[in-house]
Amino acid sequence: MPSSKDVAKKAGVSQTTVSRVLNNPLTVSEKTRAKVMEAIDALGYIPDANARSLVSQKTHTISLISGPLHNPFFVDSTSEIIRYANQLGYKVNVHFSDGEIDSVYDMVLSHKTDGLIMSCVLFNDPIVYRFQKLNLPFICFNRRHESVGNYVEMDNMDAGRLAVRHLLSLGHRDILWIGGSMLMSTFRHRYLGFKEECDRVGGLPAYQGLRIKTVNYKETDYPDLAMMMHSLINNQAMPTAICAATDALAIEVMNTLISLGYSVPDDVSVIGIDNVRNSATPLVQLTTIGISDQSQLGEIAIRMLIQKIESKDNAEAQTRNIRITKSVSLFERKTTKALAIL
């Protein structure tokens, strides 16, 4: 069985460098790290994880609590988190939240882990204080606590503003907002941004006759959109445009509209927020709001978390908060169009 000495010889580095790649990869250049990992793959070397954890007091394991995989946002982010962590020698234990979040937290905390990355925290969730008492490095992505902890998010307020601003610029004055629970920062801030923009223009002469309807579901996994659409049809209240708080919701809205005989965007324009990878595919072509530089929140968050884990002996680094809010832009595609002027 090959040893670390064999890996060092094949990679042309010292055994100390091999050890640093396995135990503290951020201290090694990307080029050297790649050489060592190539040698490990070529030789089939299997590091003794138990020995490494005894020496370093680390498990090289990170726990991820993700939202459900039927939402394409979590498909994209989970893949990026695992890919990046694996490159730096960390394994990721993935837990999917189905609403019973307390049991998921208990499961995660029952096993030793170097850090926690999650997209499930509620806006005023008390669990963050438990993490702090345990001195467990953690970071949220896509969601955030109202005052505590580390997070990476898009500018959700501005996303809500930009989404409705785009529809208004196309001449739409009858707009429906479909969102989620105000207990989640993502839905909360996107709705507040949407509402702020509607309130701002509501009294202006150019926007006379503006009609805004809002629906915020407590649960957004499988909202009964068909029932709502049937109600709108029966009351002759179908809007000319729908602003969905996520791309996942927007895609469900489009599926529902098409199943009812409506054309998107000829009959109803639809815009989402997130700019997930699936939204740009030729079959979807969803107009959406996303991060301006198209970076991935999960990848940014796992990078920040690993830096925090690796600097655990640095008191200043441990007390420094990571609070990143990425700017957003409109990605205009095929699901919105200007109203015809009669």
From TrEMBL:
Residues 5-46 form the HTH cro/C1-type domain. The keyword Transcription applies. Pfam families: LacI, Peripla_BP_3. Residues 2-56 form the HTH lacI-type domain. The keyword Transcription regulation applies. SMART domains: HTH_LACI. Keywords: DNA-binding, Transcription, Transcription regulation. GO terms for molecular function: DNA-binding transcription factor activity; transcription cis-regulatory region binding. InterPro entries: Cro/C1-type_HTH, HTH_LacI, LacI/GalR-like_sensor, Lambda_DNA-bd_dom_sf, Peripla_BP_I. This is LacI family DNA-binding transcriptional regulator. The lineage of its organism: Bacteria, Pseudomonadati, Pseudomonadota, Betaproteobacteria, Burkholderiales.
